[in-house]
Structures are given as C-alpha cells and as structure tokens.
Amino acid sequence: MTTADWTGAIGVAILLIAFMLNLIGKMKNDSMIYLVLNFVGAGVAGLASVMLNYWPFIILEACWTLVSAYGIVKKWTGDSALKA
C-alpha cells in the first residue's frame, strides 16, 4: 500500500468509528468528540484525496471538514443552533 492508501484508510477508519459509535448509541451526533472525529477523519481522508489528485473526493472531504469545523465552533461557543 502507498502512503496515500494508508492515509486514506486512517481517515476513513476515523469517520467510520464515529459513525458506528453514533449508530449504537455510544456517542451523540452533536457531541464535541463526534464533531472532532469527523473533522479529523475528513481532513485526513481529504489529504489522501489531494495526494491522489482526485477532485471529487477533495471537494467532498473539504466540505465535510468545513461543516465539522462549523459544528465545533458552534459547540465551543455555546450556540444552540445545533440542538434539535
């Protein structure tokens, strides 16, 4: 496996762990740890996409990272916009 493969696998693993923990009820989707795992996972997967120069996933992971960052900022500042 190449460096890009390992990088992508790590990023996707982080995203899938967060998703699985949310699905089995161990982590809420508005918790800080969930948002951080999504931010880090998408950022790492995005880095792999850049290494591969694969634009569809560069755009996808960049958007995922930015949305996660938005959620982190809202959570950090105490904004209730994320609460249902």
Name the features.
mainly alpha; 84 residues; 3 helices
Quick summary of this structure?
This protein has helices spanning 3-23, 32-52, 55-76.
Walk me through what this model shows.
The protein is mainly alpha-helical and 84 residues long. The protein has one domain (3-76). It is built from three helices and no strands. The protein has helices spanning 3-23, 32-52, 55-76. Helix 1 (3-23) packs antiparallel against helix 2 (32-52) and helix 2 (32-52) packs antiparallel against helix 3 (55-76). It is globular and about 40 Å long.
Secondary-structure map with pairings?
Elements: H1 3-23, H2 32-52, H3 55-76
Helix pairs in contact: 1-2, 2-3
Alpha-beta classification: mainly alpha
Q: Assembly type of the shown chains?
A: single chain
What low-confidence regions span 5 or more consecutive residues with pLDDT below 50?
A: none
Q: What count of structural domains?
A: 1
Write down the secondary-structure element order: HHH
